[in-house]
Amino acid sequence: MSALLLYCRPGFEKECMAEISELAGTKEAFGWANIEMNSGFVIFECETAHTLYSHCDALVFARDVWPISDRLTDLDPSDRLSPIIESVKQLMAEKGIKLLGDVSTEHAEGDDYRATAKFAGKFVHPVRQALRKLNLLSKKEDSSKPSLRLFFKDSTQVIVGSDKPRLRAKWPMGIARLRSPAAAPSRSTLKLEEAFGHFLGDDWREQLSHCRTGVDLGASPGGWTWQLVNQGLYTYAIDNGPMDKKLMASGLVEHVAADGFTWKPPLMVDWLVCDMIEKPGRVAQLMYEWLHTRQAKYAIFNLKLPMKKRFQEWQDIKTQLDIAKVGQHPKAIMKAKHLYHDREEITVFLDLGNQNG
Ligand SMILES: C[S@@+](CC[C@H](N)C(=O)[O-])C[C@H]1O[C@@H](n2cnc3c(N)ncnc32)[C@H](O)[C@@H]1O
Question: Does the beta carbon of 241 sit less than 6 angstroms from any atom of ligand 1?
Fold first, then answer.
C-alpha cells in the first residue's frame, strides 16, 4: 500500500490528518491514518499517494511531506545497510531517478524518540558512503535532484522514500533552526523571520530592502518590529504595552498606544504585520480590510486557533477570505503555514495585488 509521511508539530497530528484527508477527498483519493499523538508525524495510507503528493505544497499543518516507497522492519543490527541499499535501488528504478542529490535520515520529534534521533544522526554517514560508491548519489549535495528520505521509527525499522525538490520544505523536515538575534527584544522575532523566509523565499531581505514603511499591530515588546526596522523600514508599533528602549533609540519606530482594531496609518504602508492575541476571525477580517482599502500592500499575521477546533476554525476563516478574494481581488495570493516557531497559531501571508497605491 502506498502512503505519505507527513511531519507536523507534536500535538497537531489530528489537524494534520484532517487536512490531508480533506485534500485527498477533493482529488477523489481516499485514505486513512492511525495516528500516534505527540509523535509529530502522520502516515497517511492512500492508493494514489504519489499523485496526491504533488498537491501537498499548500498544506498548512504539515511541515514537510514525502511519499513512502518501502517499509523495512527487523533490520539486522550487524547489517542494516544491505536491505536499505536494495530498497533504494528499487525505488530509483521505479521512479526513473538516475542520481540522488542528498540523503536525509529522519526520526520523530517526541521525547520517546531521543535515542532514535541520535542513531539516525550517525547513520547518515554510512548510507552516503555506500550510495556514493555505487554512483547513486551525487558527489556534492545537489538540492535540484530528489533526496533520499529515510525515516527511522527506531534502529530496527525504517521507512524509505524520495522527495521532489519543488515539494521539499525550505528547512529539513520543516524545522527552521534560526539563531535568535541577540539584539531582538523577544524570541517571537523568530516567528516573523521564519515567516518571511517561508513565504517570500531566500531573498526576503533583498525584497524588503525595497520597502520603506511598516505597521506592527500588537507590537510590544518589539520582536516583530525589530525585524522590520532591521531591514530599514520606518515602523508604526501599535500596542498599549511598552516597547523595548534600544529599539526605540533606532529612531525608526513610532510607538502608538492605541487599539490595533481602530488605529489607521496616515499613508499606505508597505507591510502590515500583526501578532495580536485576539479572535482569529476578527484578525483575518481586519487584515483583509487593511489591504482591500489600500492601507497596506502586504500582510503577515498570526491567527491564534482555539484548542478544540483548530482545523475547522482555519477552514471557516479561509472560506470567508477566499469568497472575498475571488469576488474582489481575483489575483490575490494567500498562503498559510503552521510554522516551526508557531505554537497554538498559524501564520498567514496575504497580498491582494494592490501594490500601485
Ligand atoms: C504576542 S504579543 C506580541 C509580541 C510581539 N510580536 C513581539 O515580537 O514582541 C501580543 C501583543 O498584542 C497586544 N494586543 C492585544 N490586543 C490588542 C489590541 N486590540 N490592540 C493593540 N494591541 C493588542 C498585547 O498587548 C500584546 O503586547
Answer: yes
Please name which of 321, 325, 329, 323 lies closest in space to residue 346, comparing C-alpha atoms. 321
**Domain match, 205 and 276 both:** yes
Active site residue 304: yes
| CB contact set of 348 (below 8 Å; sequence gap of 6+) | 284, 287, 299, 300, 301, 302, 303, 334, 335, 336
Ligand 1 within 6 A of CB of 276 = yes
User: Active site residue: 153, 191, 297, 304, which one?
Assistant: 304
pLDDT digits (tens, 9 = 90+) for 116-154: 999 999 999 999 999 999 999 999 999 999 999 999 999
Answer whether residue 182 is part of any domain.
no
Atom of ligand 1 nearest to the CA of 222: 9
Handedness of CA 104, 105, 111, 114 (dihedral sign): negative
Q: Shortest CA distance to 126 belongs to which of 85, 69, 154?
A: 85
Is residue 263 lining ligand 1, measured as CB closer than 6 Å? no
pLDDT per residue as tens digits for the range 254-312: 999 999 999 999 999 999 999 999 999 999 999 999 999 999 999 999 999 998 899 99
Does 200 share its domain with 168? no
Nearest atom in ligand 1 to 238's CA: 21
Residue 222 lies in a domain: yes
- Same domain, yes or no, for 296 and 227? yes
CATH classification of the domain holding 229: 3.40.50.150
Same domain, 156 and 242: no
Domain extent for 56:
3-174
Q: Which atom of ligand 1 is nearest to the CA of 223?
A: 8
Ligand 1 pocket test, pick from 261, 262, 276, 278 with the greatest ligand atom count within 8 Å of Cβ, gives 276
Beta carbon of 218 within 6 Å of any ligand 1 atom = yes
Q: Are residues 128 and 232 in the same domain?
A: no
User: For residue 209, what is the DSSP state?
Assistant: T
